[in-house]
Amino acid sequence: MDKLTSMNVFVRVAKAGSFAGGARELGISRAMATKHIMQLESSLGTRLFNRTTRSLSLTDVGASYLERCQHVLLEVDEMEAAVTHLQTEPRGVLKISAPPVIGATHIARAVAEFLKIHTDLTVDMILQGSPGDLIDEGIDIAIYLGALDDTSMVARKLASSSLVVCGSPDYFAQYGVPQTPEDLAGHSCLVNWAISPRNKWQFKSESGVSVINVSGRMQANVADPIRIAAINGLGLVMLPTYIVGRDIERGKLKVVLENYTLPPLDIHAVYPHRKYLSAKVRSFLDFLQQWLGPRVSMPGTE
Question: Does this model's pTM top 0.85?
Fold first, then answer.
């Protein structure tokens, strides 16, 4: 039997949790799926599954083999794509993950423009706070905000956006305006978990760098809830200008601590380590980098 075919059957069975489910996805019989797994186990000299009459589960060896099989099959797919028309013209399905706010605005608009150009392409877009497991979820590109922690992912910097500290005029009328970063200890600071490091705001001035531990009455894993809370006078926020620019222009929020510099928020595209990038991924990365930069770096742009 072909080893790659057997590996593919193994991955499908493992993901489905049953021989019947994996076989159904591949359009083969349960008996054929079982034969492929038995052939693999025979060649490896070990069991890949624990089998009972009611359940099927991976052995420790099976779990390790599953991860390696996924990478091998992905490499094979990409190697084949490298010598086909998929490498010259974007087509097929492009799966993108992005944080909710920037995903629903800037990235969505970029996708719309990109699809107008490439008519043979379709896009599946997921809005979520973290990139997720790119390989398991079949994600081609994930948009990531802030410092990158996972060194196993390949990253491409797309743009940077300025961060500002701001609050509503009503809040400042009641609690006063902070004059230095240290004054934030006496203020309610609304925290966006998506901007790392959580609960620590970093400022630069001529005298050096200050890292301020902040806390407040509300935290959220996306920007909009704390932005709305700030407009309603519940505290200060540190957010990118592309999110609060319009509110600042309309007087709903006022920027403070302007003599202190906040590190910019970097926006990256991350994707699994791949020797060959498909045309759809490569083209969208190039397009997004050119499209996104001017829009997120300017206050108030949408």
Answer: no
